[in-house]
## 1
Amino acid sequence: MKLLIDTHALVWWGSADPRLSGPALAALSAPDNDLYFSAVAAWEFQWIQARGRIDLAAPLDELLELLPITSLDLAFDLHRYSASLPPHHGDPIDRIMIAQALRDDMILVTRDGNIRKYNVRTLW
């Protein structure tokens, strides 16, 4: 499976936080799954870490080096996918991750109930 990891899922996985669900932990730990982290989620991670909302001592680059994750650049054409989404969710970062998951046929690992309103495959 190709899994696109939402920001909170990466934080909880990297810190062994019990809020990460059992199925999400199993999928992220399965060696046959391909794991991805979006550039837009990286921006969000840095932004909320700078405001003290993430309780991780390690910077994002170190965390990504420790985990078997491929980083994804933000492709220009994602604006078309994002613009075509229904207005269920106003968060532009989440809308871009939804668009990226849809475009690249990925499963989005997220607890966010608003994301599950879209026609995107999710895992939690």
## 2
Amino acid sequence: MEKYICTICEYVYDPEEGAPDDRVEAGTRFEDLLEDWTCPVCGATKDMFEIEE
């Protein structure tokens, strides 16, 4: 699974880890996050994330 990076604060969403503080279980693909999910660090919306290279 691909990791996604926030273009604002560089937080990396790793699907293998999920986002436990946001109640996102490990194994949750980025595409499967709720549409209103935001970066847990800066609050950026999903459209502000890019695939990490």
